[in-house]
């Protein structure tokens, strides 16, 4: 369980959490086998729901946990000389374990439907919005950016070495850090920015109408602010522990007829966060996603020419105009290639 296969990327799960949930799954499987059923309102399923809610585990992830617990249990039983794979009772024994897994998932699903654990839009620990809110808002903000041809930026803020801090100072410390981080960041950003708990130790900020330069400056100020203000003292050892963050920010510009791919925006910022952490942590990684096309006005600035100069380049076949909605634009790659090859 400590090496849970879905425990990767921005949604990674720490080993202690995986082991805790895995042990509970095994215990509930045993209860289902011994009792013949599991009560969706019972303490075991209540505990399971609370642990799942801690990390906002998806149904797919929980199902995989139960599958691993079930498979491991069957593998262990197969070696038992009384009911193992070489004995007559084996087919029935294995089937009982499989049925218990279905009972466990059915009980959890019933409780989730009729007794929701908590609000789906507010994270209980940080009081920030939850990941599903960002998933719903991000495409809409990208569409709005296209309508008004604005920039939009997405920032990920990841607490450095949170698992190490937990091991050194106790597992309640990480929750206190995240709680204070939520308070700090909610007050730091604009009212119309979307501040979201993105993953266990990662907070996302969606910044509408924010240019790459402004987003990068804001990311670095956020990094410094956290380092300056988010420190704590371990009262058991009187040691002062510093908290730092790695930040990734990706900015994209939308044009009419050329929308921002919100899935690419998310993928790019997640990859940038991994680079920020891999590059030493406590740093900012920045990515700018430019549109494929360029306005005529922007092209004149890049090439240091006039509208007539652009028309001449089009007439000579050196630039190809592209119809995009109500506008005529130029291929960005072609304009930038001309900038690189023109004589100084």
Tags for this model:
elongated; Alpha-Beta Plaits; 5-stranded mixed sheet; 344 residues; 12 helices
Describe what this molecule looks like in 3D.
The chain is an alpha+beta fold. It has three domains: 9-114, no CATH class; 131-289, Alpha-Beta Plaits (2-Layer Sandwich); 293-341. The protein has twelve helices and ten strands. It has helices at residues 15-35, 43-54, 59-77, 90-114, 131-148, 162-169, 171-188, 212-229, 262-278, 296-303, 307-315, 332-341; strands at 151-159, 194-199, 202-208, 231-234, 239-242, 245-253, 284-289, 293-295, 321-324, 327-331. The protein has a five-stranded mixed beta sheet, sandwiched between helices. Strand 4 and strand 5 (239-242) form a beta hairpin. The protein is elongated, with a radius of gyration of 26 Å. The mean pLDDT is 85.
Radius of gyration: 26 Å
Question: What overall geometry do the principal axes of the alpha carbons give?
Answer: elongated
The level 1 CATH classification of the largest domain is Alpha Beta
Estimated share of beta-strand residues: 15-25%
Q: Counting H and I runs of at least 4 residues, what is the number of helices? A: 12
Structural class assignment: alpha+beta
Largest sheet: 5 strands, mixed
**Tally of discrete structural domains:** 3
The low-confidence parts are: none
- The second-level CATH architecture of the largest domain is 2-Layer Sandwich
Question: How many beta-strand segments?
Answer: 10
